[in-house]
Amino acid sequence: MTITVALPDGTERSLAAGATAADLAASIGKRLAADAVAAVVDGREVDLSTPLADGQSVAIVTRQSPEGRDVLRHSTAHVLAQAVCDLWPGAHYAIGPPIADGFYYDFSLPGDGHFSDEDLGRIEARMREIVAEDQPFVREEHSIEGGLALFADQPYKVEIIRGVAESAPATESGEVADAAEGVAAGGVSAYRNTAGFVDLCRGPHVPSTGRLGSFKLMRVAGAYWRGDEKRPQLQRIYGTAWESDAALGEHLHRLAEAERRDHRKIGAELDLFHFPPEIGGGLPVFHPNGALVRHLLESYSEQEHLASGYQLVWTPHLAKSTLFETSGHLGWYAEAMYPPMEMEGATYHLKPMNCPMHILVYASRARSYRELPMRLFELGTVYRFERSGVLHGLARVRALTQDDSHIFCAPEQLRDELVGLVSFVLRMLGAFGLTDFEAEVATRPDKFVGDEQEWEEATSALVEAVEAAGMPYVMAVGEGSFYAPKLDIHLRDAIGRRWQVSTLQVDLQLPQRFGLEYVGADNVRHRPYMVHRALFGSVERFMAMLIEHYAGALPVWLAPVQARVLAVRGDHEQYAADVAQRLAAGSVRVDVGPADEPLGARIRRAKLDKVPCVLVVGDDDIAAGTVGVNWRGASRPERGVPVDTLVADLAAVIGSHLGDGPPGKVLG
Questions:
Q1: From 157, 211, 305, 406, active-site residue
Q2: Above 90 in pLDDT, residue 569?
Q3: Which residues make up the CATH 3.30.980.10 domain(s) of the chain?
Q4: What is the pLDDT confidence band of residue 634, given thresholds at 50, 70 and 90?
Q5: Residue range(s) in the chain whose domain bears CATH number 3.30.930.10
Q6: Which is the catalytic residue, given 82, 135, 235, 402?
């Protein structure tokens, strides 16, 4: 007797009755069988040992896929829990899920014990012994009562089982909110291995521990049970796991590079900004160097917007609550807003977004179709009370300045406006040396407001705009806001990390909530479409991304100090000052380093300060009116460069926004 299953490519395969997902993988090929870690059967992830039935649709999950990596990480988390219980008898284990690039597991140790970083090596060694033993992961099914008995000595597992069984509603599949922990409406699933260790889990897992091995434990942290600070504090061990030692090595290299490039560390080294405790978390203070970089970013953005038909507006930092009631922010967004302020019988809020005030500009008088599209632009600071646990340098702050635009257009103008807008965004970002972009179009969710036809028109216009730009994109089906579809533009930085930068959102609701209108050519009132657009996302986060992308060595046009002049000896300092004066007259940001220590040490300091162009002057230069030039990234310095030539070279590089060296030999 045979069964037939359908494969993802539309083909079918016949197998003997009782065949498992592992048998299917083996029938397709040895390589697939070796890489397989789980399967998806009729849309549900299962173990490879799961028997297949006639007519099912089956996909094999491989270790290199995102889903396969989750299986590897989840399985490795179980091995971590087993190792901890072996080394600390009586330990209680809580939850251990896969996360982005890794996994963690939470524990409480006997006698209020605590892990130290030194314990990680011992735990990892025991984990490798478990892997070498190639212990199978065997799935078990138990009743709720059986599960409670099985985990009677594990209070966190007991709480999970009781909580889900007593209060959580089941889904159509019988699974519930804590299904990842293996509890469904009618029973408990667990995984056991030959060492006797058992864990509550939905699965799937790799067939045996021998399929694991490319992992590393990273650090120890504290975590409250269920994320509730009123509950017990547990010890959390973080780790990472990959499909191969090579992939693990690449990841660890990326982590090391990310640490080296951390904008918080570089920001302190280059004296750019800091977060004074007297002001509060998430509220940065920019020092002269950082404020200058910020000014350059904002000035460039402002100039480009003005040149592209935008009109500048300015709006205050707070408004009465009635404005945010009309906009819906108090209904949708109140948890992220700062608390209200009562003054003179009215309630005020710091603005979380600029859009309601831009709408007031549009609505301040009657509008004609001749005024559309109307593109309003503001470098507007907004305030969002992010929880302290998610604050992260400039990348996640509580006061953020957006290069915020709101475009009001007629429905028939929407497509062309979005096409031009995507092109504008890519051109602007390209000025910062950024080229690796991809987009995500988020479409209508199941629960939405508005007219379906308008949703379809807006979504189609977003797709046409990104296709016209030739940018790769994916459809995020059902992931739009309940009031609008949107286009998110992501970029990859120098070490391959993905950053979300620009967002374009076609708003179908705010024009209606505020009763916006324009008089058309037919002398009839119509409702405009409204497009939200933040190009940088926020100035602060964009600065963080640029600092990390360039490891602090910002392009010449953005560098706080573009050139530093160093005299070989003290008697050359006057000539160094004269050179600096000529550069400054050519609009170059330049300083002079005093000859108070050996020249080599001063050159090294200039390089640590990320100065793009280091100039050295000595006897020969004074006689000839030249300088020695050390361009950042050059293999060797240039000697005897005429000062006028240097001024012209720097002006060309700064004006082009490209590279770190003179035209014809751009370094980057």
A1: 406
A2: yes
A3: 67-255
A4: confident
A5: 273-315+354-549
A6: 402
DSSP string covering 32-73: HHHHEEEEEETTEEE-TTPBP-TT-BEEEEETTSHHHHHHHH
Q: Where in the chain is the domain with CATH 3.40.50.800?
A: 556-656
Task: Note if 532 is an active site residue.
Answer: yes
pLDDT of res. 659: 62
Query: Does 406 participate in catalysis according to the annotation?
Result: yes
Q: What integer is the mean pLDDT of 261-290?
A: 96
Q: Please tell me which residue in 85, 355, 409, 613 is annotated as part of the active site.
A: 355
pLDDT tens track for 175-213: 333 444 555 556 899 999 887 899 999 999 999 999 999
Q: Which token pair is 641?
A: 């460069």
Note the CATH number of domain 556-656: 3.40.50.800
Handedness of CA 121, 126, 132, 136 (dihedral sign): negative
Total Cβ atoms within 10 A of residue 656: 14
Task: Exactly one of 532, 572, 589, 632 is catalytic; name it.
Answer: 532
pLDDT in tens, 73-106: 999 999 999 999 999 999 999 999 999 899 999 9
Residue 521 identity = A
The pTM score is 0.83
Residue whose pair of structure tokens reads 């008898």 in the numeric block:
89
pLDDT at residue 1, as a whole number: 83
Distance (Å, whole) CA 422 – CA 501: 12
Is the Cβ–Cβ distance between 495 and 551 less than 8 Å? no
Q: Is 67-255 a domain of CATH 3.30.980.10?
A: yes
| Residue 226 annotated as catalytic | no
Q: What CATH class is the domain 2-62?
A: alpha beta
Q: Which of 3.30.930.10, 3.40.50.150, 3.30.470.10, 3.20.20.70 is the CATH number of 273-315+354-549? A: 3.30.930.10
Identify the active-site residue in 358, 486, 549, 602: 486
Tell me, yes or no, if 216 is annotated catalytic: no
Residue written as tokens 């005020």? Answer: 348
Q: What b-and-e string marks burial along 283-312, b requiring 16 or more CB atoms within 10 Å of the CB?
A: ebebbebbebbbebbeebbbebbeebebee
**pLDDT tens-digit profile of 51-79?**
999 999 999 999 999 999 999 999 999 99
Residue-averaged pLDDT of the chain: 92
To the query of whether residue 384 is one of the catalytic residues in this protein, the response is: yes
Instruction: Tell me the C-alpha to C-alpha distance, in Å, between residue 39 and each of 72, 103, 205, 476.
Output: 13, 21, 10, 23
Say whether 21 sits in a helix, a strand or coil.
Answer: helix
